[in-house]
Amino acid sequence: MATLNDVAEEAGVSPTAVSRYLNNRIELPQATRDRIDAAIAKLDYRPNLLAKRLSTGKTEAISLVTPEIANPFFAELAAAVEAEAERHGYAVYISSTGGSRAKEIDALNRLRDQHVDGLIMMTNQPDDGTLARLLKGAGNVVLLDEDVPDVAVPRVFVENVEGAYLAANHLIELGHDDIALISGPAELFSVRERLAGFERAMDEARLPVRAHWILLKDYSRQFGYEAMRWLLKQSPRPTAVLACSDYLAIGALKAVREAGLTVPGDISLVGFDDMPFAELVDPPLTTVRQPIADMGRIAFERLMAVLNKTPAPALTRLPVELVVRKSVAPAKRKTN
Amino acid sequence: MATLNDVAEEAGVSPTAVSRYLNNRIELPQATRDRIDAAIAKLDYRPNLLAKRLSTGKTEAISLVTPEIANPFFAELAAAVEAEAERHGYAVYISSTGGSRAKEIDALNRLRDQHVDGLIMMTNQPDDGTLARLLKGAGNVVLLDEDVPDVAVPRVFVENVEGAYLAANHLIELGHDDIALISGPAELFSVRERLAGFERAMDEARLPVRAHWILLKDYSRQFGYEAMRWLLKQSPRPTAVLACSDYLAIGALKAVREAGLTVPGDISLVGFDDMPFAELVDPPLTTVRQPIADMGRIAFERLMAVLNKTPAPALTRLPVELVVRKSVAPAKRKTN
DNA sequence: AAATGCAAGTAAAGCGGTTTACATAGCGAT
DNA sequence: ATCGCTATGTAAACCGCTTTACTTGCATTT
């Protein structure tokens, strides 16, 4: 591969001149420019990014850490960040932590080593302080979708409270009054917010929130499945379930089907996220849509603001929207 | 951040000694080792990867180009490659091309710039020769899942012919004789292979392959939808459809549902891939499973072989398996 | 006592760029 | 004839690490 020196030699100028010309730090007469351009073309020169990065200390790259890239919600989010980054000439290094704390820490350390300019972090499990400490050390961080307490960086979240409120209200309006909730770990910010939205809707309708029908563990299909199995065994059982992620809802759906029951015939179900497959499952899932493309775009914008030391809001809330499909039916009349 | 020089100074030795010690290229007495270790710990030293890579010309990183990371099939494949790469201490840079030729080329060029050691390439569209030329120039490439003609690199594919044969036979055994096929672009290797498997099954059963029921365009949900809509309008229409990817099958499913018909009641459907959501759609999809984890692992192994100039098979075929779920029913008796 | 060999390092160049500070030529003004 | 200015560059250090070739001191052999 040709180097800057080769180009300089070929063009009969100094490497300095070529470098400065390529970075627009010098005005050269047309003749010289032409010679350099010709040399570059002839040698098929491409700057060595490694060398450039080492020299400037800037990488024009960011890192994106996601719990699980195979989860379509995160995959779409990653794609959205990447699309925006590309428009700005930034590379994105995606790392997927498999939801394990150790791998999150790994990813953060590796990031320090790879010398990226910044980091967009998504997590889906509560932090015991480790993550916060690492993130403070890392600098140039933006949190997306989920909070990590005690770290002063820009955050991009959706209106979790509003989302759960809309979902619960939808169920209530259709006559449901025994509503269960399945969600992630109690310590997680989004879990608490969504729970708050649920409770607000129930309170406003003067419906009781039954503690034993609030099932919190993690945002996984497996837990959605287990939780729903448990709920179906109760008597009386809830007439509707609010699952606080589509993954949970899909697991729940499987449990219902296995029990020989149907959604929404026997039990109504609302999800949260509107991941790409929500409309394809059986039945198409009524769910709360998060604006994935906007989230990715805005998270990247916020990171750019941090990098350029431009002022930017510390917290951005993106609106959600209830998407009504086929997984909710009106409650059956009580046989009093 | 502390540098190697800082460590050397702190430990009272030369940078050379530290470098060689860290890379196991020198035997030092315990006392010296201890001093260096102490200095590293004290300064919280981490080697600058950029500098290391520039210096050695090795990056311990590979690039993975995928058509679309938001497609769960590719996302899982990417995760599998990443898992294996991590075991070997390699970083993986994922780029997602959105199925556009221009972006594939971009990705390959960027790769040259990023100086990765190697590349695992997945594509899902036919090549006009551009890609082949670039890949030849790139070196250290492995093709995964799909072929690019005329480039002599190791390939990892599944038994496409066998897969389609199994799927078609399954339909035939259940009495179907009017079977349509929906697949990707005719020029694509996997499309031709799967078509061959289909035709072989039909021939063996002495069933006619009707040319107007071979619908080839691209591996997208949209095309699956359009193709199925068209098929449903025909009279008589096929009693079963073999969709050569789950994405196609899912689009087809949507068309059936919109037409007020059901799978498998009115028409049977088999997919191909067994992506994670295949069992979650309505009805759970009967499909041909590709061994995603193995594909990722073996592709990485092949790339390592190329990098280490170890001999490795030019072509590896991984077995597929028919997963019977609920999207196929026995053919109804003909009302002669 | 000189030669030999080994252990324990080190000096300096190089990877491919960037950047700071300086150089030279040509030209108009005085 | 000289001064100073602008246009057009250049030399050399540096980013942080690796690596080749060399040095130094000491114990052992002859």
Automatic annotation (TrEMBL), chains A, B:
Keyword check for Transcription: yes
Keyword Transcription regulation: yes
TM region positions: none
HTH lacI-type domain ranges (all copies): 2-56
Keywords: DNA-binding, Transcription, Transcription regulation
Gene Ontology molecular function terms on file: DNA-binding transcription factor activity; transcription cis-regulatory region binding
PANTHER family, per database record: HTH-TYPE TRANSCRIPTIONAL REGULATOR GALS, LACI-RELATED TRANSCRIPTIONAL REPRESSOR
Protein name: HTH lacI-type domain-containing protein
Upper taxonomic lineage: Bacteria, Pseudomonadati, Pseudomonadota, Alphaproteobacteria, Hyphomicrobiales
